[in-house]
Amino acid sequence: MDKVAAATSVKDELEACLMKLEELNALMAAAHLDAAINALCDELGLSRGKSDPE
To answer: What is the pLDDT of residues 8-39, one digit of tens each?
Structure first.
């Protein structure tokens, strides 16, 4: 698996966790995870997949 494919897989897993945190109303944790996902995408040039985070 190449670096971009591996990073995309991690990003997808993190976004699934983000949705679970939001469902639990764990908004502080969700905000930090959202920032981490954005940093990952910026660092590796990945597309975030959603245009307007909640």
So the answer is: 999 999 999 999 999 999 999 999 999 999 99
Residue 25's Cβ-count burial label (10 Å; 0-12, 13-18, 19+) is: exposed
pTM here is: 0.82
- Give the helix, strand, coil percentages of the chain, each rounded to 5: 70, 0, 30
- Measured CA distances, 28 to 10, 16, 20, 44 (Å): 21, 16, 13, 25
What is the biggest distance separating any 2 CA atoms in the chain, rounded to whole angstroms?
35
Q: How far apart are CA 35 and CA 42, in angstroms?
A: 10
Decide if pLDDT at 49 tops 60: yes
